[in-house]
Amino acid sequence: MADTATTTETVRVARPPRPAGRRPRDTPGVFGALSHVALVVWAILVIGPILWTFLASFKTNAEIVGDAPLALPQAYDWGAWGRAWDKAHIGRYMLNTALVVGASTFLTMLFGSMAAYVLARYRFFGNRAVYYLFVSGLAFPVFLALVPLFFVVRNLGLIDTHLGVILVYVAYSLPFTVFFLSAFFRTLPTSVAEAAMMDGASHTRTFFQIMMPMARPGLVSITIFNIIGQWNQYLLPIVLLSGAVEDKWLLTQGIANINTNAGYEADWPGLFAALSMAILPMLVVYIIFQRQIQSGLTAGAVK
Amino acid sequence: MRWRGGGGAGGFSGAKARTYGFVFSFLLVPLVLYVVFVIGPYAQAFYISLTNWKGISATPTFVGMENFTRLLGDEVFWAAVRHHGLLLLALPLVTIAVALFFAFLLNIGGGRRGRTAGVPGSKFYRVVYFFPQVLAVAVVGVLFQAVYRPDGTGVLNGLLALAGIDPVGWLIEPDLALWSIMAVLVWQLVGFYVVLFSAGMSAIPQDVFEAAALDGAGRFRLFFGITLPLIWDTIQVGWVYLGIAAFDCFALVQVLSVDRGGPDNATTVLPLEIWRTAFTFSKFGYASAMGVALFFLTITFAALSLRVTRRERIEL
């Protein structure tokens, strides 16, 4: 930083004098250095706890409860990872979560884009009413619905089932999905769809073969938004999947439960291995798709 | 009999019927799911809040406003509301300030003479800062339990020990616990707003900065005089988002705090009380009344911030 600053000064002196009024005031050096320190510190704050968790998964119990929390593990032992995967059922929870989120995101996108398309492109009686009904869902906190939701799901016989969780995820993802996608469908040109209709394509075929491919950028953003939102959901699983069906639990509630038990069972490395396993896939996916993920998650706010 | 109309309304009545059939078939499933699982429960919650419903067998008895009058005298309820108020003030302020600072450095602050450029490595920082946003709040809560452990075994206390400072009870000191939890929220959220504000800043035309720099504006003027007013809309969006987040905090408080909302209700929030009142104590009527209270708090906040937004627009 300091080096560049001096070079700039020299260059400025060497140049012919600028016309009056052109006096660029720089505050290089100190400001640049301080700001860089701030950036580095925050990066360490972000990486630090995550890195510490990975390292702690290789430590022994004694090392973790010992008085040197910042020390590196003495030996790298994968035992805790095996225990977390089998005994603490992280493998099972992860598979459950992948199945539930896979199904619910697919259905959210299917039903959400169907509703959004019809609401955006067709004029019919009640169109606005249905649209505002969907969008109004954005204004309500989910905690208000919690008690009745539990009983609705129970009365349908879907409590403690993955199907129940999937349907609830889809229903609660619809407001934002419909809101976002109907705005998106409205921006697409009408001519291609009209030409297809002239050629005899049905409404349904026009939607799936013409409109869906055209809407791809919007669909990708909102799919990422829904996958991450549903994958990280914690409240709905703990309400809809009780302690009676531990084999059906999802990752977030499993991790929270291991956390509660880690103290009693005195298996801290197991907890940190479980935590690492929950973080690692997100890290890999994030590094590969970070561009799409950033734009997908901020999509709602930028509009 | 092919459909040959233009736009939504067909020329022939057969085509029109087909259009309506299509609209109906596309709306049916999403609408049924939405009404059964979302609208229905929301509507029922208002009714249940007026009953003393305690569970499975007993039928709900209508008790009018009793739950709400009891709520007014409930210390835990007021503690939770106070915490939301505190979060509502501090969380957006801190998060937005930190995120604006970093976004400015990453997009504009690194340039010279109005040539806007980020500091070296700005792409790397943006990627790193955003990552916590991708993690589940429950996972983050467990992660920070190790950071905040009260004795010498905690990560943070380990760092303090290097400086010769005694261990701090981050989560067990009643006066400190809520702030510790808020710090985790800021930790997780800042990256999102850095990316959001970066998008706003990169939309500002380059010549605006060049012109200002030629007129002799330094970095502080570039920030307060140009960047801030020009991305004011984005900041307001961020403020509303963070305000709504201040009314949630369920997962983090439930996982991270001592005794779920403790010590001694020092960190409790309404969502946690709703969940606990319903699913631990089976007081479904009372829990729904809290839900209604939460709803009105959220709506009031949203309405107020919309009003502020409108006024700002006129001024601009």
Automatic annotation (TrEMBL), chain A:
Tell me which positions the record assigns to the signal sequence.
Answer: none
The membrane spanning regions, by residue number, are: 30-52, 93-119, 131-151, 163-185, 206-228, 268-289
Gene Ontology CC terms: plasma membrane
Record membrane topology: Multi-pass membrane protein
Q: Where is this region: Disordered?
A: 1-25
Superkingdom is Bacteria
Q: Which Gene3D superfamilies match?
A: MetI-like
Q: Name one GO biological process term.
A: transmembrane transport
Bias-annotated ranges (Low complexity): 1-14
Q: Which family does it belong to?
A: Belongs to the binding-protein-dependent transport system permease family.
Q: What is the designated name of this protein?
A: Sugar ABC transporter permease
Alphabetically sorted, this entry's keywords are: Cell membrane, Membrane, Transmembrane, Transmembrane helix, Transport
The residues covered by the ABC transmembrane type-1 domain are: 94-289
- UniProt KW Oxidoreductase keyword: no
**Cellular compartments annotated:** Cell membrane
Protein source organism:
Sphaerisporangium rufum
TrEMBL record, chain B:
InterPro entries, per the entry: ABC_transporter_permease, MetI-like, MetI-like_sf
Q: Where is this gene product found?
A: Cell membrane
Keywords from the named record: Cell membrane, Membrane, Transmembrane, Transmembrane helix, Transport
Task: Enumerate the Gene Ontology biological process terms.
Answer: transmembrane transport
User: What membrane topology term does the record carry?
Assistant: Multi-pass membrane protein
Q: Which GO cellular component terms, listed alphabetically, does the Swiss-Prot or TrEMBL entry include? A: plasma membrane
On the tree of life, the source organism's domain of life is Bacteria
TM helices/strands, residue ranges: 20-43, 86-106, 127-148, 176-199, 220-242, 284-306
Which CDD domains does this UniProt record tie to the protein? TM_PBP2
In what residue span(s) does the ABC transmembrane type-1 domain sit? 85-305
Name this polypeptide is given: Sugar ABC transporter permease
Please tell me the species this chain comes from.
Answer: Sphaerisporangium rufum
